[in-house]
Specification:
Number of domains: 2
CATH topology of the largest domain: Topoisomerase I, Chain A, domain 4
Strand order of the largest sheet: 3-4-6-5
Domain Ribosome recycling factor: 47-206
Number of helices: 8
Radius of gyration: 22 Å
Pfam family, one: RRF
Largest sheet: 4 strands, antiparallel
Structural class: alpha+beta
Distance between the termini: 40 Å
InterPro entries: Ribosome_recyc_fac (IPR002661), Ribosome_recyc_fac_dom (IPR023584), RRF_sf (IPR036191)
Shape: elongated
Organism: Cyphomyrmex costatus
Strand content: 5-15%
CATH superfamily of the largest domain: Ribosome-recycling factor
Protein name: Ribosome-recycling factor, mitochondrial
Length: 211
């Protein structure tokens, strides 16, 4: 994967900064390339998770099931704490197995950006599925942009931290440092472009999806 990314980056890098070819072995000797790629991948995965958990137009069972609930100091998905079923215009949570988790579940449901309005009856929680308005779609689209910005910030932080490490290394030739820094920059730009594509796709889904 890394070598493919570097190969794809070469032409764009030369146009931007006139970088000469750098082979993978040289790159790997200076930094832990696979670790860097993994960190960038994790930033994209967090963006995917944010989109899935917080930006559902239809308040689907899938989004509800994966919702995070902090219970007794630990993070759980809602499906780990409740049995979830669906009725017409209603999602039903059976929390009889972990009734002590009900306050935390209600808190997570009410603060979620899907604007849920849960109603408790004993150990059962009912969640009405509201009609999705144009305003709600637009609000979700704006929230998607916020998650995208956060992802790009994470990518930049990873990039800046890695470049700082490079600059602190001793006995590296200046031209080598320049090439390595430039390739780190190219990789970060690739990941931000990927995040932007994900944002465009999600916003089209949120605003253009029809009921």
């Amino acid at each position: 994967m890394t070598s493919d990314l570097l190969a794809k980056s070469k032409n764009r890098g030369e146009k931007k900064q006139k970088i000469q070819h750098i082979d993978y072995n040289e790159f790997e000797q200076v930094i832990e390339v696979n670790k860097l790629i993994s960190q960038f991948d994790n930033a994209i995965e967090r963006l995917k998770d944010d989109f899935t958990q917080h930006l559902s137009v239809r308040s689907s069972i899938g989004a509800i099931e994966m919702m995070s609930v902090k219970f007794e100091g630990k993070d759980f998905t809602l499906q780990e704490l409740a049995q979830i079923s669906r009725k017409p215009k209603l999602i039903v949570l059976n929390v009889s197995t972990f009734p002590q988790a009900i306050p935390d579940i209600l808190k997570s449901l009410m603060k979620n950006q899907m604007k849920l309005n849960p109603q408790q009856d004993g150990t059962t929680i009912y969640i009405p599925i509201l009609k999705v308005t144009k305003e709600h779609r637009e609000m979700l689209s704006k929230n998607a942009k916020s998650f995208y910005v956060k992802c790009c910030d994470n990518v930049r932080q990873i990039r800046n931290k890695q470049i700082k490490v490079i600059k602190q290394k001793e006995k590296l030739a200046k031209d080598l440092v320049f090439r390595i820094e430039s390739y780190i920059d190219i990789l970060s730009q690739q990941y931000m472009s990927k995040a932007e594509q994900m944002l465009e796709t999600k916003q089209k889904e949120l605003v253009g999806d029809s009921e």
